[in-house]
């Protein structure tokens, strides 16, 4: 299964970064180009262990829905979410936070499997991995901007 790894140094306390990363409102703010909105489950506030959310967003020109659930949480160091229903065959996204100097090192591991077998593997190589990598890095950059300006 493909894995995308991304890390970002954020000049902000670990607790702030952790909370911003699991905020529904901040998630929406960090991905304006996908027109995301939370339409079911936890639709506002901070996600907690066991919470789920259904997102509606436009990716690769297609409006789609995806439901994910928080499957692991160790405040303020780590949380994971996994797809329950959506366009991927499966995905698991781990967010890790480490104190570093006067700030926080935020690491993301996004492990996924594209749908549709061989066709999905081809789509992954042609555009999906690049799209998801850009999505994660853009979100991290926006989260950094928000955390450092609050």
Automatic annotation (TrEMBL):
It holds the Pfam family Polyketide_cyc2. Gene3D superfamilies: 3.30.530.20. Transmembrane segments: none annotated. It comes from the Bacteria. This is Ligand-binding SRPBCC domain-containing protein. The lineage of its organism: Bacteria, Bacillati, Bacillota, Bacilli, Bacillales.
